[in-house]
Amino acid sequence: MPLPTSPVIRRARLGAELRQLRRRAALTLEQVCERLGWASTSKLSRIELGQSRPDLADVLDLLDVYQVSATQRDALIVIARDAATSRGWWKSLGEMGERQRTYAELEAGAAGIVEYQPAVVPGLLQTPAYARLRIAAGQLIDRGVDVEADLRARAARHAVLRRADPPRYTALVTEVACEPAGDPVEIWREQLRHLLDLAALPHVTIRLLPTGAGRGPAPLTPFSCYSFPDPADPRTVMLEALTADVRLTTAADVDRYEQMTGCLLEAALSQDETTRVLAGRLDG
What we know:
284 residues, alpha/beta, 12 helices, 6 strands, 51% helix
């Protein structure tokens, strides 16, 4: 069952709202924790930073301390419940490491996703066989990679594009990412067919970036931009690095990546042109 909201984003929004309420009340972290009998400020700090799944009772206690009005209180309780998320939903995702779980949460509640990949086919568009090659390659630098668990997690994430109310998804993929690069021919042909099948869906757009296109060099780092049904939930950018990912939510940061996305869209082939190129490679 799809989520109406993204838990990781609701946690970020709840934390920002609570931090604003505390500052409006002219209270320090220490003063609030003293009033509530909390042992240290780390618990409140993690809630305000959106780093922990909040307990509703703790949120209610905080709202009492900040003397929040009934209307605002009701709205924040809804956000807190979204941020907590039932553990039953986690079971529906299967095994997931922390990195994949963050992406799954963002994808599950997103209204729109734009993904840029300079080197490989984006994860949401990968076939199981192609994904296995990519995940297995990760074992060269991290022996702890569990290929089968990662594949199951990836399969759970793929469902977001096939659900009843999917997000609008746009993939910006470089020409290099759409070349076999030594992959077995049958795996690559299956991947091309899968891209063409997904591109036929009304909510999926795949745009190819020709080598050397655009007014400047394409970014070297993959990134994804997320927007959400509730406009008050912060737009988010995820930067994919080797060992960790960076989440950006400030308006200034997100605006810069959306501007970059606009430049890439201008440089990319149209959806129809991309389909013709991919179909030509498959026929060839």
